[in-house]
Amino acid sequence: MDEAIPILLVVVVIPLWIIFHYITKWKQMNGITAEDEASLGDLRTAADRLEDRLRTMERIMDDEVPDWRSRHHDKF
Asked: pLDDT digit of tens for each residue in the chain (76 aa)?
């Protein structure tokens, strides 16, 4: 009978405790942090600026070399 308690602890209690511990940690880490959200905002701003620059460059190319798009697409 004295051997049943340590075996019960090792076989049932400790594995369940470890499983529930990591489930709790996983649920806490599931959300996005404020720092991650700020980084995503910065990346979005940079992407918007690059998109504006690309549109400007395409307008300049359309004015300078009107058929640049057709020549470029024919190569691929």
From this structure: 677 777 888 888 899 999 999 999 888 886 788 898 999 999 999 999 999 999 999 999 999 998 888 886 655 4
Q: For residues 39 and 45, give the distance between their C-alpha atoms in angstroms, rounded to a whole number.
A: 10
Both tokens assigned to 34: 């404020």
Structure-derived torsion over alpha carbons of residues 36, 37, 40, 41, reported in degrees to the nearest 10: -140
Residues 6+ apart with CB under 8 A from 60: none
What sign has the CA pseudo-torsion 45, 47, 53, 58?
negative
pTM: 0.53
Q: What is the residue extent of each domain of the chain? A: 1-31, 33-76
